[in-house]
Structure prediction request, 438 residues.
Amino acid sequence: MADVLFGTSGTTGASKPIVRTEESLMRDAKALVAAFPDLWSDRPAVVASIRPEHMYGALWRVRAPVVAGCEVWPSVVFSVEELAAACARYSKVLFVTTPSFLEKALAHPDFASLKGCFKGIVTSGSLLRGETALAVAEATGVCPLEIFGSTETGTVASRRRADGEEWTLFPGVGASLSSEGTIAVDSPYAMTRPFAMSDAVRFTQPDRFILIGRTDRRVKILEKYVSLSDAERALESHAFVSRARVETYGESVPRLGALVVLSQEGRAALAASSFSSVLSRLRRDLLSGSGELAFPRRIRFVRELPVNEQGKTTVAAVRNALALWCQEPVVLEWSATDSVLSAKLVFPPDAECFKGHFPSYPILPGVAQLYFVRHFARQAFADFPTVATYRRLKFQKIVMPGREVSLEIVRRGAESFSFSMTGATGACSSAIIERTAT
Prediction:
């Protein structure tokens, strides 16, 4: 049979080409159908938010449906609206997706209306947070099935967060602990047997384990080795932090940088104070608990971690975000559909965009307002134009530090959007945004 060329995700570095045989892929797909009969019984239609070019999609969107005799929705779904259209076509749907899609879907006002549509929900690509899994289960009536594996190994294990933190090995797959404390997989679907992964684990039973973190995320900073995973866990232990991703930045002298998604408590603290005060609080609290902690030199607060189409946060994306010229404002509320984005924002007083405009009376420059309109629009609308013309652009009232403003971006058609930014005293700015022909 022919070989199939895949590329790794680039989560911990550059993407690498991986060759798998069609025979090994089909063995994996047949085992998926046999291992999870509750998902495939009654032949649900398979709807996916992931592409077939990657290992996860190649198995769950292409080969396993063929084995199970299931129809596949022909398009990749990118929004809750597209998911709803697919669900309306079929009596039951097996939804194959990623944690990042589910997190965005939970912020959509219509996601809960799909309750009862799903035969099952399968997720992979990155770890699904416990609170996300429970929220999806409440909204849809289905607890997602998480799949753990890699391009090199195929399927390794699975779990449902309703059952706990443990992963259960996939039928036919054996595993042991390597000398480095990582999982060594003995699988008929792997490139080699055994295949040593870079994931540290703790076995609770011969066929069950708990993931600890990746061992290939150790870097040398100023003559000292630092675990990026440990730095992330330390940040996430703080009440202000929901999620964190730590990477190095800088070429000649590597430094630690972090993207931090604030918790509700953290967002409230930042909205009421400043970037510097929240950073000082994080540093004081975390370093007082452990003098050995490598605290990141640069921290950027973000509404969400950047992810690729596989739902993974890559090293390149983190470094690009760390290099952005200005911190995001605090996003107190966020609601996005396929046609409307509504958000409530607060710009802390020490935001870079206030510096020099004006020294004695800081206000948010118009160019900064347009920058953040584009920044947030691209998070909500995949087709928001990269090159655009702003018509009927108006700046009516000033945006001051620490004051709450409402941002609304509305789709007007295939090639245009409009935006408005409104404060307590009325409209601050607005425009029609049209794609510029290139």
